Backbone:
């Protein structure tokens, strides 16, 4: 029997990708939603996925976040302890734990991500309680702290999200997601459905939090403005396949693929 | 054994249920005892009384009762309420067993809404009638999902409910059917007993069986099993307290019912456990 060496308990490796997707395929009947999608996401990196409606962006996000089982391909994820595991080889409890600690999901419609019947404080505290926090005062403090971080008045802690404006609901959803200090956040059109000034404020907040917490994120959006502000790197999708990928400024300023050129030229100036 | 039954029940098997059904229920009980707090499905039978009157408890009792047993049935702590009287008579007629109102005399106690004040012993079995066995039901309507939550011990949502109570009212407002964690593993509904009785379930020397007839579930707490009421570290579980003592026997540590005595605001507090109250009155008179 050999003793366990330090190399066996590999510490988290910053030089390796956090998430590596290889040859991902997802079909719905005859319809192919994602065809042979491969990409890597590095720690602390914000990856934008852009493309028109129906290009497979959301399906890709759902597959990568283990909410949909892909038909083919591998998704390798580097866990906190440095071990790399295929998402769909993990047991259900391990996957659930990942979903509520290491990961976060910000839905386009905050009503999908929030529990509308519960108070704002309970919404923020839910993830903490799910992973075993059993001290009311600590949960309360964490909730107050996060309400301040996302610029919601702390007096609103016992109000339900139903009494919140759309922008506040979205910010509450972000607080609720980030309270467990995830390393990877999936965002599906995080600013969709908000008016322009609220969008700007939310983007500003998101960018600040990503920097402050060193979050890696995959942001699905059809809004190239959002992509330019948030994303370090861009993936352009069309018909379920990646047509172009590169640094955000590079893709947006010097698009190579004809479809990307069309997309960029149709952006409102 | 049918010779012990009265003539009008001739033709019925001992304790009403047929032997195959009893065997099936006993298997479910054994499984329930082996996995404390886990809800075992069973093929609940039609009983000659409506759902909600204790069909689950009666089936469990019918499966475990023998000719030598002594049965006590209580409803809200009392031996003389309609349900208790009907169920006691049901078994007296169909099984011909001895019945009693004294907790210490009984080998099987079927109960609705209370645990007797007198501590139970190792040679006793308490059978609870359960209306809704699933503690997560009001948080998660899907049965498949609640089973998965039990399998993964995913009980966070229950704490979210407690959090909401404390945030809104400053305390947990659940006063009966207060959720418990059995043996550090399964979340369990203790049936609608007041939370006053929850501490009695913890490390109780008697076998505790729970039967839900309509929902077709049996679960159990074996003797000497830890049963913990859910709480927060800084908001520990507490039980009800009264400023009054029992108006009849003067008990200050028992669960009291408020009884309205007239239409001019007259009221009194009396023990809900009638046998306990009577025992204390007799002891007092003897002094």
Residues:
């Amino acid at each position: 029997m050999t003793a366990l060496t330090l190399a066996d308990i590999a510490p988290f490796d910053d030089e390796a990708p956090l998430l590596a997707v290889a040859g991902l395929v997802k079909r719905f009947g005859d319809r192919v939603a994602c065809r042979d999608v491969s990409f890597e996401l590095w720690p602390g990196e914000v990856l934008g996925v852009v493309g028109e409606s129906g290009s497979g962006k959301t399906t890709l996000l759902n597959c990568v976040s283990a909410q949909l089982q892909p038909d083919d391909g591998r998704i390798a994820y580097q866990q906190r302890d440095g071990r790399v595991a295929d998402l769909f080889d993990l047991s259900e409890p391990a996957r659930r734990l990942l979903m509520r600690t290491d990961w976060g999901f910000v839905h386009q419609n905050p009503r999908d991500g929030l529990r509308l019947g519960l108070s704002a404080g309970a919404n923020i505290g839910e993830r903490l309680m799910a992973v075993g926090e059993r001290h009311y005062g600590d949960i309360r403090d964490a909730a107050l702290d996060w309400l301040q971080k996302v610029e919601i008045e702390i007096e609103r802690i016992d109000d339900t999200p139903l009494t919140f404006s759309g922008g506040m609901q979205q910010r509450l959803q972000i607080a609720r997601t980030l309270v467990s200090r995830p390393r990877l956040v999936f965002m599906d059109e995080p600013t969709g459905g908000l008016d322009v000034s609220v969008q700007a404020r939310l983007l500003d907040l998101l960018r600040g939090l990503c920097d402050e917490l060193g979050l890696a994120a995959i942001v699905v959006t059809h809004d190239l403005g959002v992509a330019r502000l948030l994303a370090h790197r861009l993936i352009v999708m069309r018909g379920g396949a990646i047509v172009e990928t590169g640094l955000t400024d590079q893709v947006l300023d010097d698009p190579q693929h004809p479809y990307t050129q069309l997309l960029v030229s149709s952006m409102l100036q | 054994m049918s010779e012990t039954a009265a003539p009008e029940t001739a033709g019925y098997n001992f304790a009403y249920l047929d032997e195959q059904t009893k065997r099936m229920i006993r298997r479910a009980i054994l499984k329930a005892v082996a996995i404390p707090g886990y809800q075992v499905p069973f093929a609940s039978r039609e009983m000659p009384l409506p759902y909600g009157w204790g069909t689950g408890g009666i089936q469990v009792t019918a499966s475990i009762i023998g000719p030598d047993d002594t049965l006590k049935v209580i409803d809200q702590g009392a031996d003389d309420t309609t349900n208790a009287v009907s169920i006691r008579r049901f078994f007296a007629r169909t099984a011909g067993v001895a019945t009693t109102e004294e907790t210490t005399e009984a080998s099987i106690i079927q109960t609705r809404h209370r645990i007797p004040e007198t501590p139970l012993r190792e040679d006793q079995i308490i059978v609870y009638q359960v209306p809704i066995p699933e503690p997560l039901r009001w948080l998660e309507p899907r049965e498949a999902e609640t089973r998965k939550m039990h399998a993964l011990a995913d009980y966070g949502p229950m704490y979210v409910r407690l959090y909401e109570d404390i945030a809104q009212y400053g305390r947990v407002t659940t006063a009966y059917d207060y959720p418990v964690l059995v043996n550090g593993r399964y979340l369990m509904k203790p049936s609608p007993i007041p939370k006053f009785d929850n501490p009695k379930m913890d490390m109780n020397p008697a076998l505790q069986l729970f039967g839900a007839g309509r929902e077709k579930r049996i679960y159990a707490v074996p003797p000497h099993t830890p049963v913990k009421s859910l709480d927060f570290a800084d908001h520990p579980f507490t039980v009800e307290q009264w400023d009054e003592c029992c108006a009849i026997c003067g008990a200050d540590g028992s669960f009291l019912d408020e009884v309205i005595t007239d239409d001019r605001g007259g009221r009194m507090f009396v023990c809900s456990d009638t046998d306990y109250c009577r025992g204390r009155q007799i002891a007092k008179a003897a002094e």
In short: Chain B touches chain A through 16 residues (CB under 8 Å). Helices of chain B lie at 19-34, 55-64, 82-94, 143-151, 156-169, 198-201, 274-286. The first helix of chain B runs from residue 19 to 34.
